[in-house]
Amino acid sequence: MESSRETKHQPDPGDLAAAGEALYGLVTAAIRRGPREMSLTSLSTLATLDRTGPRRITDLAVIQGVAQPSMTVLVTTLERSGLVERKGDPADRRVALVALTTAGAELLRTQRRAGAEALIQLIDKLPADEAAALAAAIPALRHLRELDSERRDPATGAADGGSR
Question: What stretch of H or E contains 89?
Fold first, then answer.
């Protein structure tokens, strides 16, 4: 039986480590440089709601790796800001679901555009062959996002990787 990493031309483990380190460094630098009006946990919670639809506070707490009382406070803050709203669960009227509002979705789109634009400006500085190599890696990068989404929240499956 083949593992998911076994292929005809298995990359050298050192190359995989170097790729992981390069991606991690790029992501952390992008996060540090990006404009941020709220915490990363708040933005990540909004992105989860965008990707998966309305969720219970307990689900959001598990996905974000925070205690339920902390998530309740965060959701209340997001609600007061008009970025999320609580709705009744049609399957269980005792439960409230947290849903992304139009304003929350727009904030995410703005953040994503700003982040993408910053990376586009860096990519524009690359030699043509390196930019082409990045373009060729797009399917693998999208697959990595899907795998991460599945790891963080197995109940959602691959979803769309948060690319809306």
Answer: strand 84-89
Q: What is the model's pTM?
A: 0.73
User: Strand, helix or coil at 8?
Assistant: coil
What's the CA gap between 42 and 46, in Å, rounded?
6
Q: What is the pLDDT of residues 106-153, one digit of tens each?
A: 999 998 898 888 889 889 999 999 999 999 999 999 999 888 877 766
Using CA atoms, how far apart are residues 58 and 75, in angstroms rounded to an integer?
Answer: 11
Distance CA 147, CA 10 (A): 19
C-alpha span between 49 and 45 (Å, rounded) = 6
The SS3 call for residue 95 is strand
Question: Count of alpha carbons within 13 Å of 29, Cβ hemisphere only?
Answer: 9
Closest among 73, 70, 53 to 61, alpha carbons compared: 70
Cβ atoms of 46 and 83 closer than 8 Å = yes
Two structure tokens written together for 24? 């991690």
Which of 82 and 1 is assigned the larger pLDDT?
82
